[in-house]
Amino acid sequence: xxxxxxxxxxxxxxxxxxxxxxxxxxxxxxxxxxxxxxxxxxxxxxxxxxxxxxxxxxxxxxxxxxxxxxxxxxxxxxxxxxxxxxxxxxxxxxxxxxxxx
Amino acid sequence: xxxxxxxxxxxxxxxxxxxxxxxxxxxxxxxxxxxxxxxxxxxxxxxxxxxxxxxxxxxxxxxxxxxxxxxxxxxxxxxxxxxxxxxxxxxxxxxxxxxxxxxxxxxxxxxxxxxxxxxxxxxxxxxxxxxxxxxxxxxxxxxxxxxxxxxxxxxxxxxxxxxxxxxxxxxxxxxxxxxxxxxxxxxxxxxxxxxxxxxxxxxxxxxxxxxxxxxxxxxxxxxxxxxxxxxxxxxxxxxxxxxxxxxxxxxxxxxxxxxxxxxxxxxxxxxxxxxxxxxxxxxxxxxxxxxxxxxxxxxxxxxxxxxxxxxxxxxxxxxxxxxxxxxxxxxxxxxxxxxxxxxxxxxxxxxxxxxxxxxxxxxxxxxxxxxxxxxxxxxxxxxxxxxxxxxxxxxxx
Lengths: 101, 397
Known about the structure:
Low-confidence stretches of chain B: none
Number of domains of chain A: 1
Low-confidence stretches of chain A: none
Largest sheet of chain A: 2 strands, antiparallel
Strand content of chain A: 5-15%
Shape of chain B: globular
Structural class of chain B: alpha/beta
CATH class of the largest domain in chain B: Alpha Beta
CATH architecture of the largest domain in chain B: 3-Layer(aba) Sandwich
Number of strands of chain A: 3
Number of strands of chain B: 18
Largest interface: A-B, 20 and 31 residues
Oligomer: heterodimer
Distance between the termini of chain B: 48 Å
Radius of gyration of chain B: 21 Å
CATH architecture of chain A: 2-Layer Sandwich
Largest sheet of chain B: 7 strands, mixed
CATH class of chain A: Alpha Beta
Shape of chain A: globular
Number of domains of chain B: 2
Mean pLDDT of chain A: 92
Structural class of chain A: alpha+beta
CATH topology of chain A: Alpha-Beta Plaits
Radius of gyration of chain A: 17 Å
Number of helices of chain B: 13
Distance between the termini of chain A: 53 Å
């Protein structure tokens, strides 16, 4: 059997964004960074980044300020748990939906 | 070259001639002499393979799964509780579509402990998605092992070569060891359909969701149900491949011709005895005796058990008055698994022969030819006489 036949007949994933689709739709609660509290944002220095380090899906950037890619963020809350200054709060997606409407 | 050796050594020669590259196995009676022989071949430099001793059967097959994923021709062997201990990996190897070959040296399953022969071990794994072939003598063992690698690699499905513990594994009989150059012509080096490559990293057999999912390019990747459907469809396709490979083997080595079922004196038979493995050959003696008594009896040995060759089974059996299925295994609480499969295959036919199920030789209980003769004679003289329940031969209650 050739390569394509086997890879199409087994569960086969390559590294890169988007394997398993836009997993942001799995999210129930959304992490939102308060830039007034966030250490790197507040001090304008490349410090802390615990959220970037702990994010299991690699959707948080190591930038000033840090950003979250909501297309793929599953809302696991690890970033909020690990933030040493409590700068990340989790907001119900339903609340945001109501607000949008 | 003809030699006189044990069935386990016949299997070891098959693996050596197939130039397996990775062998991982844990010794278990009655498979042990097979793996010992292979480790001797590797130690002596007669077989250029990595022999990996492991601490369990689960690890043995896990090693073969890893080696096969990396593109190596891989082999393992086991028996009975060892096969059950690796059962999780047995299913995994099929779903991962890895062309591993495994010898199952058939032995009964505990509890209670038994080290002797029956077929409960491999029959209990019949639904794992592997191809299962049963050998009836030493020549078939060595020939089937060589063909099994070709078949597994052609369809990307692992193959179990099953043969009876002790009755074949530890008995000696003459057989021909094929010439290496001829085997090399028949079985070219393994070109994996897919192999792990550090330059193109990938996750294999990752978790699937209930539905299909888009991959990183946004193309739809198969979900669990699609992957399992392909395995089933490809197993059904493999039935034709088995005959093709058998024909190629016969051209090269002059042996074969019965890829699905092996008939004996069955052309004009009114009654046919069916069995897996060496029991099919023992039944030939029984049929010879019945023929002398004027009973038109024959034998049908089932060689390919999974995928089940329904059409060949119907062709071989549908025309007779009665079918006696002799089995060394049970689907407990129902009947012998082979008997159920045969009945299902015959369901769509116009004729519906009487099918009787005989359970024999569990845990190595001696299968006396005279007892087989008495049972088959009584069936042939009054096929409708007894009820449809399983009949146990040699039971001492």
